[in-house]
Amino acid sequence: MAAVETETRDKVEMAPNNEFDALIIGAGFSGLYQLHKLRDELGLSVKVLEAGDGIGGTWYWNRYPGARCDSESHSYCYTFSKALLSEWKWTERYPEHPEIRRYLNFVADKLDLKRDIRLGTRVAAAHYDDTSNRWRVTTEAGEELSAKYLIAAVGCLSTANVPKIPGLDQFKGQWYHTGLWPHDGVEFKGKRVGLVGTGSTGIQATPVIAETARHLTVFQRTANYSVPAHNAPLTPAFQSYVTEKFDDIRRTMHGTTNGHAFVIEDRSVFDVSAEQRQALYEAAWQKGGLQFRATFRDLLADKQANDTAAEFIKAKIRSIVKDKATAEMLADIDHPYAAKRPPIDSFYFEAFNRDNVALVDVRADPIEAITASGIVTRSGKEYPLDIIVFATGFDAMTGPLLRIDIRGRDGLALKDVWAAGPRNYLGLQVSGFPNLFTVTGPGSPSVLCNMPVAIEQHVEWIADCIAHMRAKGLERIEAKPEAMDRWVGEVNAAANATLLPQAHHSWYLGANIPGKPRMFMPYAGGMAHYRRICNDVAAKGYEGFALSG
Ligand code: NA7
């Protein structure tokens, strides 16, 4: 690799006037690997433009109390390099945010990536120039760069959603969004804290904030399922198992629907007796984690099957939470289990047994306004607060792309093409936007998959595609409109074959953002199946894409 590095460093330094072969937006898991592939394997001149002052993407911004990954650490990493795998050891079953940043910095240093990453550089616009076949990229600081290939590695959950509640600007205390958390932390000691939102984030943050806050009020709009994470330090025996068996683990990750290192059991809920089912759910609950979903194969396909898991979890909530009214509020869940992204937790429901934690149902009595001193609900009740924490999620999947002014051929704006919801081919390319690739874009498995698995597949497909173009002397690639139409149909059909669209308030559907078009965004047909489709498309000479010289 050293020889390649020297050669490419020279190339990059020679790149005149900010002109590159490829520009990558974002230095998270995707952007880092894409840089390595294009620069070190294909020998392109490449720059990564990153808004943050450090690398890490999602994990650069999400530093809220309790922030850790829901994927198990041994599967939440790159798998392309044996050297990286053998030199890194995770310490806990689920990595906490600082450990993930340390990991990504380790990778970036090991692959000497940082010299080609411009930090503190937010991309404002990217316009395609048909005459020169180049993307002209403008940063918020007004700098201009250009490249033949533009790769948006902007992440799926990187545009914080701060609800527009009247009066927020009047609030005399402090408020924070979990996805834009201050790097030096927040002191909750002695404070009355209000936390809005009970998705994965609110569920992770609640028990940790409760430990130090004088009082914590959790504002719940939609009650949520959660299964214990059972986080723990990894034993040396497990670490050795991961090192020795990584090829098998990787094979499992690549062979499953969701890219995790566990297999979904090939049995129906109704193949077993009620007692056996209860015992299997209990064993899965004791084991903990996202694997609970894998207890039966039909949990996301059959509502009656799903009801059995839903009832099991609701009974658990009622058994954990001592105050009956609070338990009922928490267990009053209106959607199938795992139809929204299923959280896992460390003592979330238990936190409501503390004297300093209260739950407020803002579905029954919505938040109406924020005053100088707290939150007021429609009934006129005021909750005095010193700190408000918005765990209110993200303008997911399309938000990070649409906040950039992206224009393709003839000035075509991406926001217009996507006015009724995202449309693309394989989640990778939009017709009218030549040589623009999106990593884990809408229309790909992305958030329904263990992210690094989805990312590696996309990054490698994009790199192979560019290598193919260079080998054949081709200059442009662009999704054909009819391929895009067909794929949008497949994304809808895949979602409709599951219970996922039944959670009508889910961010998978864009329903968490007022005014956002409702469309099921990720591809629900499974990662392994999707990988086969992408491989097949490439093997057929990039079927569905128009390639030209
Ligand atoms: P989520 O899963 O989008 O959760 C956001 C939560 O905030 C959810 O409970 C929302 O209720 C609630 N919310 C949003 N806006 C409001 C307003 N205006 N008032 C009251 N409550 C509100 O985001 P997370 O950060 O928890 O998780 C995102 C992903 O990160 C997660 O799925 C993992 O993949 C990692 P709602 O359900 O919309 O009624």
Provide an overview of this structure.
The chain is built from 17 helices and 20 strands. It has helices at 2-14, 29-41, 58-61, 82-87, 97-110, 200-212, 236-244, 246-255, 274-287, 303-320, 324-331, 348-351, 399-402, 414-417, 451-472, 481-496, 527-539, and strands at 19-25, 46-49, 117-118, 123-129, 134-139, 144-152, 174-177, 192-196, 215-220, 227-228, 344-345, 357-361, 367-370, 374-377, 382-384, 387-390, 405-407, 436-438, 476-479, 545-548. By secondary structure, it is α/β, with parallel strands linked by helices. The longest helix is centred in the C-terminal third of the chain and has 22 residues, at 451-472. The structure holds ligand NA7.
Strand content range = 15-25%
Estimate the helix proportion, in percent: 25-40%
* Mean pLDDT across every amino acid position: 96
| Main pleated-sheet profile | 8 strands, mixed
Distance between termini? 31 Å
Q: What structural class is derived from the secondary structure elements? A: alpha/beta
Radius of gyration: 24 Å
Number of strands: 20
Number of helices: 17
Q: Which compounds are bound in this model?
A: ligand NA7
Which regions contain 5 or more consecutive residues with pLDDT less than 50?
1-14
